[in-house]
């Protein structure tokens, strides 16, 4: 019986979870700061750090209480150490260090993106590496070959903006609010994807900054001409461009590697069109598609606990001097 505590604080969610043997979630507590950052139109790093401090202890205690275990039952304490907002990461990591030290259990470092990938293990008990995983979040977009539980190789990536970042920026241009992904997606539901925004792909790498600029230019041009701006059509066309690019590079990566299993991860994995598009493309190519439920797509503690379980099993440990690292 391996009970693992996972702590996540890399952006604007303070989260903690206890899993059993990696894939059984006993508790998953997420405190989202989204309402606090909404009025600024994006995450304000210093405000995020301060709010993590206010609730991290309570979130951890609640996760242990809900799991109905004693602190001493834990085998290890895992925390996101990278990538993310440095101040935010430091809060969760420091709490994890203090907690691990107090109960005399090892501290295990977790890469946030490995956590996103691991969300697929929770949702699909029989999923095993190797597989191709598209990781699309607010700060990162990568096509990853998951060769083993702790072995990853990046096959393709965005050359500039992450997918979530593009959604958030377009939401701002259209005056939809924050976080942009779900709002653009909802707006797109009533629109026609009639505007041909660019879809730049080079090998397995891709770019989203041009799509974003194309949306901005399109809106400005209509404003100058005094013509009506149909937000729904813009949102639908933008969403389709992003989804087309992400679908094509993921399928291409799987083909190149002769892989028949594809998974999806990260906040953008919550996007309905992306889920449908990948599912259809995978089916058409005789591939199996795995994706976490929406609650496990955006940041949570269960994914960190699950990734931490596999890191713990492989002997990975962090010293109490472990620093947080902003970069990937
Ligand atoms: O993984 P995540 O929760 O945090 C990071 O690690 O960055 O991802 C957050 C990102 C945000 O950019 C948000 O706009 C995007 O995921 N997102 C979505 C959807 N839900 C969240 N993007 C598109 N469609 C969605 N339904
Ligand atoms: Zn994330």
Short description:
The protein has 328 residues and is an alpha/beta fold. The protein is built from eleven helices and twelve strands.
List the helices and strands and how they pair.
Elements: E1 3-8, E2 13-20, E3 24-32, H1 34-38, H2 45-67, E4 74-82, H3 86-103, E5 107-111, H4 112-123, E6 131-136, E7 141-148, E8 151-157, H5 163-173, H6 180-188, E9 201-202, E10 205-206, H7 209-225, H8 231-257, E11 261-265, H9 272-284, E12 288-290, H10 294-297, H11 301-313
Parallel strand pairs: 1-4, 4-5, 6-11, 11-12
Antiparallel strand pairs: 1-2, 2-3, 6-7, 7-8, 9-10
Bound molecules: 5'-O-[(R)-(carboxyoxy)(hydroxy)phosphoryl]adenosine (KG4) and zinc ion.
Residues 112, 116, 137, 266-267, 299 line the site of zinc ion.
């Amino acid at each position: 019986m391996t009970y693992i505590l996972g702590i996540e604080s890399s952006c604007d969610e303070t989260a903690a979870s206890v899993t059993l043997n990696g894939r059984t979630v006993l508790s998953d507590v997420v405190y989202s700061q989204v309402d606090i950052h909404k009025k600024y139109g994006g995450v304000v790093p210093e405000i995020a750090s301060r709010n993590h401090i206010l609730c991290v202890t309570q979130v951890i205690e609640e996760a242990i209480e809900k799991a109905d275990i004693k602190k001493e039952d834990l085998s290890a304490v895992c925390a996101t150490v990278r990538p993310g907002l440095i101040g935010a990461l430091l809060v969760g990591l420091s709490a994890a260090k203090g907690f691990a030290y107090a109960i005399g259990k090892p501290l295990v470092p977790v890469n946030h993106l490995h956590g996103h990938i691991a969300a697929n293990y929770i949702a699909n008990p029989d999923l095993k590496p190797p597989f191709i995983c598209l990781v699309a979040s607010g700060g990162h977009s990568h096509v990853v070959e998951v060769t083993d539980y702790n072995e990853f190789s990046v096959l393709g990536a965005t050359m500039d903006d992450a997918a979530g970042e593009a959604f958030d920026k377009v939401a701002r241009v259209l005056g939809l609010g924050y976080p942009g992904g779900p709002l653009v997606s909802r707006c797109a539901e009533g629109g026609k994807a009639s505007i041909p925004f660019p879809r730049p792909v080079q090998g397995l790498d891709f770019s989203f900054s041009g799509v974003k600029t194309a949306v901005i230019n399109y809106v400005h041009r209509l404003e100058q001409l005094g013509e009506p701006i149909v937000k729904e059509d813009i949102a639908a066309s933008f969403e389709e461009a992003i989804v087309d690019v992400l679908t094509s590079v993921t399928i291409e990566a799987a083909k190149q590697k002769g892989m028949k299993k594809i998974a999806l991860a990260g906040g953008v994995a919550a996007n309905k069109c992306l889920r449908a598009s990948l599912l259809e493309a995978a089916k058409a190519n005789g591939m199996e598609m795995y994706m976490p439920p929406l609650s496990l797509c955006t940041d949570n503690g269960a994914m960190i606990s699950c990734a931490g379980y596999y890191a713990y099993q492989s002997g990975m440990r962090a010293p109490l001097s472990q620093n947080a690292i902003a970069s990937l």
